[in-house]
Amino acid sequence: MKFATYLTEIKGVSIYPIISLVLFVAFFSLVIIWAYRSNSDEIEHFENLPLEDGQVSNSNKIK
Amino acid sequence: MELQKFQYDNEISKNFAVATMFWGIVGMLVGVIAAFQLAFPALNLGIEYTTFGRLRPVHTNAVIFAFVGNGIFTAVYYSLPRLVKAEMWSKALSKIHFWGWQLIILTGAITLMMGYTSAKEYAELEWPLDIAITLIWVVFGINMFGTIIKRRERHLYVAIWFFIGSWVTVAMLHIVNSFELPISFMKSYSWYAGVQDALVQWWYGHNAVAFFLTTPYLGLMYYFLPKAAGRPIYSYRLSIVHFWSLIFLYIWAGPHHLLYTALPEWAQSLGTVFSIMLLLPSWGGMLNGLFTLRGAWDKVRVDPILKFFVVAVTCYGMATFEGPMMSLKNVNAISHYSDWTVAHVHIGALGWNGFLTFGMLYWLFPRLFNTKLYSVKWASTHFWIATAGIVLYAIPLYWAAFRTYFMMSAFTPEGQLQYQFIDIVQSIVPFYVLRALGGTLFLAGVVLMAYNLYKTVKSGQFVKTEDAEAPALEKVYVKPKNAHWHSWVERRPITLLVLSLIVVGIGGLVEMMPTFLVKTNIPTISEVKPYTPLELHGRDIYIKEGCYNCHSQMIRPFRYEVSRFGDYSKAGEFVYDHPYQWGSKRTGPDLARIGGKYPDSWHFNHMLDPESMAPGTIMPPYPWLFEKSVDASTTMSKIYAMRKLGVPYPKGYEGKANSDMKKQADKIVANLKKDKLNISGDKEIIALIAYLQRMGTDAKTINTVE
User: Fold this and answer.
1) Is ipTM > 0.95 here?
2) In chain B, N or C terminus with fewer CB closer than 10 Å?
3) B193: distance to nearest CA of chain A, Å?
């Protein structure tokens, strides 16, 4: 399909994908840096959240 | 620290879980019927409400919004209170959400069968229902954020991020895609036309798959997989990267596909690098799920719940690998319009969504009813039946897709097309039978599950509420040592909401800008004129009958398409098409240039009895079009609405429209009379013939070969 050509004829249209690409690269890099520098103790607390729901009745704990 | 006591409400999770199962069976049953209709057209039953064109949207909407939708809500209403250690904000809102959603589904199914459709795929419901969906979605959002605000756990677990991101984005997608101008109760025209309408629709379609079928189910996976395995997720860090890259990827990265050629070299290279890197988050997510079971594979062998989860996550990996492959130009040439796409989405829907849902339900019901699963053996049987069902469903369709491609593109040494379209259809029918059997097998598994869970319910007693206790959040947050800046965001749900909204909002805007600019950039073709009133009525019948479900209106610039269907389609030809009707699947031939190809009498006979004109066809007959009359009282509002949307009808044309319509109808009636076919000019078939004969004739250059 040649419909992309109509898009490419728009003046200065390439700025939009460039904006999104650059912001994405920057954001993605930040997230990776953050994820791997984050505190291990905190992470351990976070990842155990689904397993400790504060329930007192045992009905829900079937093994 | 003082412990606060509170209760989790199981009633709402139970209701949504039962609804998930109920609509799952309904949606899949309709799917199986539609699948068999493709092989045996007699199953269309000769009445308007049950033709494939109307059932297929019922199937897609039921599976997406009823089965998966209720599945999402089951997961949210069960996991969210437990993850934030607080009950849901409002029981009343939970109830309104539940009953409102079921009512929308029911009304949706009925109206779709009655032929009320906007003809935009996966958004077919008409404007009153669009408004109802918006309201219920807001109710859901208020309830969710209310719960998050009064939480007792400071950190929001990654599953909740997925729920929040999905909620915000679905709201945005639904509103933007549903811009339409109502002309009467249950009928509207899309705000956008032609190319622009297509771009908006598939921006919606692509992201609906992302934010309705994928991200909320990832939230589900991140909660229920650790629960079922009894151990935390393999890497929480990876899940963070998974989340942010996914919501960024889907919304932001779209333009790369569209505008590749307009990008400077450096951006293209960067784009390529990233496309490859981006397999990492999806596959990272998959591996994250699979590695959670590291060292516990012995459990997988005996626990059907874990089996379901493992195959679901594997299907997620397969579908997210296949998707990017299908966006490659040369692959897309084969897969587009073909059964490949259907197979691809079913790997996702049956494997990923289906299996995750089944795993969740098998895990949930015994807990909701304080008992054991009635039969683990049956659950295992279900697993094997369903797996076989997926295989039997998908493989014939992949095979059919390639077969179609090779037959469609085959030329004789003399340069003629080797096969007629009907030859190809007929050679594909056996594959449709196999596919339908695969679907039946899958459905049989679901029925077995329903019975198993019913027995489970009978053997236990419903636990209406569960007591829980947790310390209240301290007013003043004491920062742990070495806390990172991102934890600042994680503690603030509203900030997280606003940030995600900004993220997807700007992303959406950046991606949509070219789409909004495109309207003024489509070269107008002076020969392309607005539809006549009769053709407009005919077009609305085309929409109502769901013809777009099997017929495309978009000829691609390939030799085998041009010589089969006529000159390739130009963007300027669709400027008055509210909504566009390009279609996405070619079960029947393309109709973009059907106009003038056959005499009026051919269409007359073909719509009454397709077999008489095209022996071996799988198209159903449409006898009611010969009995029902066009409602001429709506002509005025249709013309008026179209002019409002920018179609250049002269001022005051509404007054003349009906007499013009009569003149054109009389001409067709006279034409038919010459072939000894007698019918009065106000019947729907006349309007439909007018539309079919108009299609593609404005800018026709090459005559069709076939």
Assistant:
1) no
2) N
3) 14
